């Protein structure tokens, strides 16, 4: 095949190059014409015949070779190209080329315009971001610290069917019985004292170290009876003030006044993630376990809180003996102490939080305990996308000093004491925990928390007694139980509905003395005969506001307190730039039960009950 193609090409080349030469020669001299003219009338042989013959032979060979080549390549030879118009084709090609160039130019222009739009949008975003950073910063920048202000201003109000002479906070263990004047009088109080201010300072000196400081205050304190029984109520009231150092490895140390480790957390055991019920009442809810007190906390986390994480924490917190109660049908021992009132210059108030003496049916109480050790707490928490669970324990150490009793005179009801005092420390404590589940993409939260132990009354909202006295004058921790169930429904991002039910219990803790009398918490022979007596006229009044006295007695202490609450919360405005406007309303029903008495009457059953329906309302504006 290649030889055939080569031969064909050679013959064609020879023909092409020979033809112009022969034609030029003939044209130049025209020998054929000359020969014809010279030999007209004769048959003569022309010089051009050989040339014509040669060309004819070559053309025949070329045609033969072309035919042979065509026969061999016929199946694969493409169809002949279309006839090309020597004028129209270049014009069409130029038109097509111009169209392609125009299209490319248009596409380039569009891309340039789009790029310009993107640059303009980015520039506008940068300008807006710069404007927001200057005029609407999320935090104030001071050197290497980001400072974020916070808090809210509040209007709040409470209606109680039976007066407890209190602000928006409810002293649950003081719900009055019908024998008290307040048991027949309602109260309506407005307040703005729960308004709050806060400052959060954050910095990151190194990639592996974060520093945080937090301060939070409100106005719910009193000048003469402020204390640190459960929350620091010294005015201006210090709710929280603490500092924190956190490593990227999950190790964190926090020190200052903060929510107790007993309090339920939303993320691990982290400060500022504590969960409070959505109540307006600043004493929160019966059954809710909490404290806000000075302490130091160390924690270590493993894992990612957004997926799954395990956290362990240990804390040492301020100790206190609160709501100490002791009663007896006879004389009580008097030479013991475990604390005292504040002294001038000591910055503790010189006012007892219960008062009392050492006569039948009453007990002595002072404000500040002489603590031998802090309360020690430990908690582990596990976080998953669908739930949070935590469990912990607490150890308490209650110490008192006393003069041992040597003798008791039954005639004069007098004790004889030793000449020198001794001390005794009783160990108390218990366990606590909570579990919270998130349902329907976290639109519903269901939680259950509880605490059980001895000497843990101060960790409950009702502040039931956590200790009493033994006949030998040593302290006796009382068994306490707290529990709270909650359901919170986030109907929309701006509207919530919630329900709570809580209970707290203090166990009867009594002892028989060597003289045949009983003493401790809730002796059975205390009288409840007057709990339901109505006040009677006495013909006079005392104090500038007057008073009405009740007849009979209502001496047994609280056995249990229950509360059911329901409410709504609406946030018509909730903006990270403009803040949050919030409206809330709650209804509560509280029942306070006393321990039964062996001293019965025809009109008063054992275990009397007092009730307290309440309505709280609220309007708050939160700083963004």
Structure description:
Mean pLDDT is 84; it is low at 1-42 and 354-364. A hairpin with a 3-residue loop joins strand 8 (292-304) and strand 9. The protein is an alpha+beta fold. It contains four helices and 28 strands. Strands 2-4-5-6-7-8-9-14-15-18-19-22-23-26-27-28 form a 16-stranded antiparallel β-barrel. It has a three-stranded antiparallel β-sheet with strand order 10-25-24, with no helix packed on it. It has a two-stranded antiparallel sheet with strand order 12-13. It folds into two domains: 2-73; 140-622, Beta Barrel (Porin). Helix 1 (2-29) packs antiparallel against helix 3.
Give a topology summary:
Blueprint: H1 2-29, H2 31-38, H3 48-73, H4 88-135, E1 140-142, E2 145-160, E3 187-191, E4 196-206, E5 209-218, E6 237-247, E7 251-259, E8 292-304, E9 308-317, E10 327-328, E11 336-337, E12 339-340, E13 368-369, E14 375-384, E15 387-402, E16 405-409, E17 414-417, E18 422-439, E19 444-454, E20 467-469, E21 475-477, E22 479-492, E23 495-506, E24 509-512, E25 518-521, E26 558-575, E27 579-594, E28 609-622
Antiparallel strand pairs: 1-2, 2-3, 2-4, 2-28, 4-5, 5-6, 6-7, 7-8, 8-9, 9-14, 10-25, 11-15, 12-13, 14-15, 15-18, 16-17, 18-19, 19-22, 20-21, 22-23, 23-26, 24-25, 26-27, 27-28
Helix pairs in contact: 1-3
């Amino acid at each position: 095949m290649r030889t055939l193609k080569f031969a064909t090409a050679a013959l064609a080349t020879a023909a092409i190059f020979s033809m112009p030469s022969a034609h030029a020669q003939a044209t130049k001299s025209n020998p054929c014409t000359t020969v014809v003219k010279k030999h007209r009338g004769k048959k003569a042989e022309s010089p051009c015949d050989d040339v014509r013959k040669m060309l004819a032979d070559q053309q025949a060979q070329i045609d033969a070779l072309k035919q042979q080549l065509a026969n061999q390549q016929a199946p694969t030879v493409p169809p002949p190209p279309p006839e090309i118009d020597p004028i129209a084709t270049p014009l069409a090609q130029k038109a097509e080329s111009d169209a392609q160039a125009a299209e490319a130019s248009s596409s380039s222009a569009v891309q340039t315009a789009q790029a310009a739009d993107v640059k303009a949008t980015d520039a506008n975003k940068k300008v807006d971001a710069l404007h927001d950073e200057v005029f609407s910063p999320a935090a104030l920048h001071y050197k290497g610290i980001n400072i974020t202000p916070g808090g809210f201003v509040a209007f709040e109000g409470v209606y109680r069917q039976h007066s407890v002479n209190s602000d928006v906070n409810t002293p649950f263990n003081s719900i009055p019985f019908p024998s008290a004047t307040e048991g027949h009088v309602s109260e309506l109080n407005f307040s703005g004292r729960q308004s709050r201010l806060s400052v959060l300072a954050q910095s990151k000196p190194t990639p592996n170290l974060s520093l945080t400081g937090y301060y939070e205050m409100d106005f719910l304190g009193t000048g003469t009876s402020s204390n640190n029984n459960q929350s620091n109520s010294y005015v201006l009231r210090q709710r929280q003030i603490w500092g924190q150092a956190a490593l990227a490895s999950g190790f964190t140390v926090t020190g200052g006044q903060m929510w107790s480790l007993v309090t339920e957390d939303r993320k691990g055991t982290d400060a500022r993630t504590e969960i409070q019920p959505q109540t307006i009442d600043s004493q929160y809810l019966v059954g809710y376990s909490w404290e806000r007190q000075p302490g130091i906390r160390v924690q270590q986390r493993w894992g990612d809180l957004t997926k799954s994480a395990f956290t362990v924490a240990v804390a040492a917190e301020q100790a206190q003996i609160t709501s100490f109660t002791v009663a007896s049908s006879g004389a009580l021992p008097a030479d013991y102490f475990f604390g005292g009132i504040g002294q001038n210059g000591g910055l503790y108030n010189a006012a007892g939080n219960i008062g009392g003496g050492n006569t039948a049916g009453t007990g002595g109480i002072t404000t500040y305990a002489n603590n031998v050790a802090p309360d020690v707490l430990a908690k582990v928490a596990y976080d998953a996308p669908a739930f949070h669970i935590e469990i912990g324990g607490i150890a308490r150490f209650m110490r008192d000093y006393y003069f041992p009793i040597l003798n008791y005179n039954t005639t004069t009801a007098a004790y004889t004491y030793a000449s020198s005092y001794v001390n005794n420390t009783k160990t108390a404590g218990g366990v606590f925990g909570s579990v919270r589940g998130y349902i329907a993409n976290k639109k519903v939260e269901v939680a259950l928390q509880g605490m059980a132990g001895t000497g843990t009354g101060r960790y409950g909202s009702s502040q039931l007694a956590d200790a009493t006295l033994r006949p030998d004058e040593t302290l006796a921790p009382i068994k306490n139980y707290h529990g709270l169930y909650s359901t919170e429904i986030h109907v929309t991002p701006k509207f919530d509905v919630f329900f709570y039910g809580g209970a707290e219990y203090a166990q009867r803790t009594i002892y028989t003395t060597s003289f045949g009398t009983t003493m401790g918490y809730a002796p059975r022979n205390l009288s409840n005969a007057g709990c339901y007596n109505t006040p009677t006229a006495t013909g006079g009044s005392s104090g500038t506001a007057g008073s009405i006295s009740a007849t009979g007695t209502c001496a047994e202490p609280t056995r249990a307190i229950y509360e059911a609450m329901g409410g709504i919360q609406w946030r018509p405005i909730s903006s990270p730039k403009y803040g949050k406007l919030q409206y809330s309303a709650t209804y509560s029903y509280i029942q306070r039960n006393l321990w039964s008495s062996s001293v019965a009457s025809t009109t008063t059953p054992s275990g009397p009950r007092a009730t307290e329906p309440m309505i709280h309302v609220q309007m708050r504006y939160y700083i963004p």
